[in-house]
Amino acid sequence: MEIARLSTTLGADVIISSRSKSNLDAAIASLPEGVAAYAADATIAQEAAQLLQDLAPLDHIVVTASSGMAASSIPDTSPETAQAAFSRFWMSYHVLHFAPNVMHSSGSITLLSGSSGRRPIAGYGVWSSLHGSIESLVRPAALELAPIRVNAISPGGIGLAPDRQLAHHAGQPIDIAKMAIALITNPAVTSTIVDVDSGERLGTWSGEASAMPSR
Ligand SMILES: NC(=O)c1ccc[n+]([C@@H]2O[C@H](COP(=O)([O-])OP(=O)(O)OC[C@H]3O[C@@H](n4cnc5c(N)ncnc54)[C@H](OP(=O)(O)O)[C@@H]3O)[C@@H](O)[C@H]2O)c1
Questions:
Q1: Does residue 3 contact residue 64 with C-beta atoms inside 8 Å?
Q2: Where are the beta strands (DSSP E) in the chain?
Q3: Which of 40, 58, 149, 206 has a beta carbon 3.0–4.6 Å from 47's, enabling a disulfide?
Q4: 20 lines ligand 1 (CB under 6 A)
């Protein structure tokens, strides 16, 4: 939402997408005028391909979809549940696979991973491996999709209390949006993963939070 809002403010033509038309209608109602919406399930390869084809030609894509799963450990998570969580990996893969044919070569793709991808915490094994898998897409895709640029943002603790972080600022969605715009607009940045986590990747947080969101 904040990426769409900031992009529109900066003059971009923005299209948002998710599965639910009612979610999209609600989002559009709270965004600046001119934002368009397209409903599709990005876990289904054909729907992702159709979405991208219908919206072509595109300049920049940011993949922010989550799989709505709470943090859990590898021993405690059934293969079926873990596979559902990894739908997020496949959404990113679908975009990287189908987008090059429908994008301007000067464009960029930005993925979203998460701070546990490079700093595992006991009890968060599925998230850690999911975030790591998304980050592992960035460098090979940057090589293979060039000159289209491919980067990722690794968020941590966005919207949560700052008690687990170095910086005295709990990251907010607008902080992610500003980084997304920086990656989109800087033509010299590709194959990069940028941490926006107020420093928690250094091990300042042990995983003991009472209210963690699902991702
Ligand atoms: N907040 C943090 O600190 C943090 C930390 C690490 C990683 N992240 C990651 O950063 C990203 C953005 O976070 P967020 O808090 O904005 O996520 P969010 O509020 O959970 O938003 C997820 C969006 O994904 C859409 N979505 C879910 N499944 C989809 C599908 N199959 N196809 C298309 N769209 C789908 C949802 O809409 P519908 O339900 O309508 O489809 C929703 O709009 C997520 O990937 C999250 O995991 C966040």
A1: yes
A2: 15-18, 36-39, 58-63, 103-112, 149-155, 193-196
A3: 40
A4: yes
Residues with Cβ within 8 Å of residue 137, at least 6 apart in sequence: 89, 92, 93, 96, 111, 150, 152
pLDDT tens-digit map of 127-137: 999 999 999 99
* Topology of the domain covering 57-202: Rossmann fold (3.40.50)
Cα 112 from Cα 92, distance rounded (Å) = 9
Closest residue by Cα to residue 130 from 187, 184, 72: 72
**Type of residue found at 3:** I
The pTM of the full predicted model, rounded to 2 decimals, is 0.95
**Closest protein CA for atom 19 of ligand 1:** 66
Binding site membership of 125 for ligand 1 (Cβ less than 6 Å): no
Task: Give yes or no for a contact between 86 and 67, defined as CB atoms under 8 angstroms apart.
Answer: yes
Query: Residue 99 — very low, low, confident or very high, per pLDDT cuts 50/70/90?
Result: very high
- Mean pLDDT over each residue of the chain, to the nearest integer: 94
d(CA 85, CA 71): 10
* Residue whose CA is at the smallest distance from ligand 1 atom 23: 65
- Nearest atom within ligand 1 for CA of residue 47: 32
Contact assessment for residue 59 and residue 104, using Cβ atoms and an 8 Å cutoff:
yes
d(CA 88, CA 94) in angstroms, rounded, equals 10
> What are the boundaries of each domain within the chain?
57-202
